UniProtKB/TrEMBL annotation:
<dbReference type="InterPro" id="IPR038300">
    <property type="entry name" value="SASP_sf_alpha/beta"/>
</dbReference>
<dbReference type="InterPro" id="IPR050847">
    <property type="entry name" value="SASP_DNA-binding"/>
</dbReference>
<comment type="similarity">
    <text>Belongs to the alpha/beta-type SASP family.</text>
</comment>
<protein>
    <submittedName>
        <fullName>Small, acid-soluble spore protein, alpha/beta type</fullName>
    </submittedName>
</protein>
<dbReference type="InterPro" id="IPR001448">
    <property type="entry name" value="SASP_alpha/beta-type"/>
</dbReference>
<keyword id="KW-0238">DNA-binding</keyword>
<dbReference type="InterPro" id="IPR018126">
    <property type="entry name" value="SASP_alpha/beta-type_CS"/>
</dbReference>
<comment type="function">
    <text>SASP are bound to spore DNA. They are double-stranded DNA-binding proteins that cause DNA to change to an a-like conformation. They protect the DNA backbone from chemical and enzymatic cleavage and are thus involved in dormant spore's high resistance to UV light.</text>
</comment>
<dbReference type="Pfam" id="PF00269">
    <property type="entry name" value="SASP"/>
</dbReference>
Length: 76
């Protein structure tokens, strides 16, 4: 079966940062990952909470970067 994953990273180096963010968010939410790397027994509710919080953080980061660019553009 072909891999039709549409979630390809534009910048492959971002994978480590996203993984780190995943573990940080899970820890903040009190969600434990298994030590062996298998996450198939996690509740859908928990994975959704992790993903939702990651998305919220990424949007905040993008908004901050855009606000910084807008303020720099106003200086010229």
């Amino acid at each position: 079966m072909a891999n039709n994953n549409s979630n390809q990273l534009v910048t492959p180096q971002a994978r480590a940062a996203l993984d780190q963010m995943k573990y940080e968010v899970a820890q903040e939410l009190g969600i434990q990952f298994s030590r062996d790397g298998y996450h198939g027994d996690m509740l859908t509710k928990d994975t959704g909470r992790i993903g939702g919080n990651i998305t919220r953080r990424l949007v905040q980061i993008a908004e901050q970067q855009l606000a910084g660019q807008a303020s720099q553009a106003g200086r010229f």
